[in-house]
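Input record (Table S2, row 479):
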Amino acid sequence: MTYTFPKDFLWGGATAANQFEGAYNIDGKGLSVQDVTPQGGIPAKPGDRNPLITEVPTEDNLKLEGIDFYHRYKEDIALFAEMGFKVFRLSIAWSRIFPNGDELEPNEAGLAFYDKVFDELDKYGIEPLVTLSHYETPLHLTRKYNGWASRDLIGFYERYVRTVFTRYKDKVKYWLTFNEVNSVLHAPFMSGGIATPVEELSKQDLYQAVHHELVASALATKVAHEINPDFMVGCMVIAMPAYPMSANPLDQLAVRDFENQNYLFSDIHARGKYPNYIKRFFKENDIEIDFAEGDAELLAEHTVDFISFSYYMSVAQAHNPEAYETGKGNILGGISNPFLEASEWGWQIDPVGLRLVLNDFYDRYQLPLFIVENGLGAKDVLVDGPDGPTVEDDYRIDYLQKHLVQVGEALQDGVELLGYTTWGCIDLVSASTAQLSKRYGFIYVDRNDDGTGTLARYKKKSFNWYKEVIATDGASLYK
Ligand code: BG6
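Output record (6-O-phosphono-beta-D-glucopyranose complex):
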């Protein structure tokens, strides 16, 4: 059955500064945690518990040059416009605006860069969707303060967000406070700029860092609405539904425990207080969150306008996980589901899971939702096509088509959804593995894992496919 998506549905694509801008030390930009993690944000080898962190940026770090969006943004935005994008998700690199993170005055050259990008988007009527912190904590804040483990970061973050809200007051409407805010539990360095090795990081310190981010997010929401009441501020979480391995009630309990670890973040953002279920977990793990005066009120009074999330995969859970094969590649863990196939990186593909997530979030919060990441990382092969080099990426089209059909189902279920941005609409550097060969884009970028390549852009088959999806308001999905 054909379904037509709402006329005002925001179709588009998503990126993050550190994965595609390059220009890591240009025009006054300071270093971020990404500039010293050349192998990505998760441990590179089995047995390691922390990512590789270098003292200084090293040449093998593909993120330093990325795909050079910094100098090629006009060409890239023109391609997004050609596909018909209504929205483009990008992040502001915090260390372009405050190079060390704790300065009093911002770096004008950094601010001017994003002015140019927003103006270029405006030229084509593309709405920016801006992540304020996408795994990009300024490195100085990590080295001097231990990142979000320190309460000091709330003040530095407030200064930063106040600066960009004021500067782009009339250019940006949609803001996300922290990318995949729940990932700090699993990747404290990449996500929270916390330098303590995971084996030494206590649960107390980790959840206190979570608290600092949650308070900072509420504060950002408050400041945003003061600066422009029309701003729409969202939280952003990793959505990963879990299925029980069996009908054993204990497996269902394991599912609930896993899901509560994720819901914790959206619950506090949307409901304004810590949920009761976490109190028991805190008690059993000797965690006592230190609330400063005013924290509870901030959380309660400045809840988000919408919930956004990334969705790539689902997992299975059981009360006896050691009896099963563990899923690969994702930072949240979980068991492989025998009913699902996986990408080359072990991420299990589950379109129906997306419909479930949409319904669960909407039922839980009755707030508008926004899917701000979804896509397939795959190795593409460039071939000669009638119009020049291209990629026959039918596997990507298949993934996106099946997920979008489920989005259509959820819309018909009654879910309120603002839009959908595919991850890595142009090839960029992977966050977990720092590879360029893990490609997500509609646009192929000629750059390889060894750093070679011309950086030329080529349209993949999926480019025209997505263009038609947008032009037909989704109707072409059902051909
Ligand atoms: C999300 C992140 O986890 O997934 C992105 O927000 C990331 O930054 C994306 O790139 C895909 O993951 P990866 O590891 O394949 O790049």
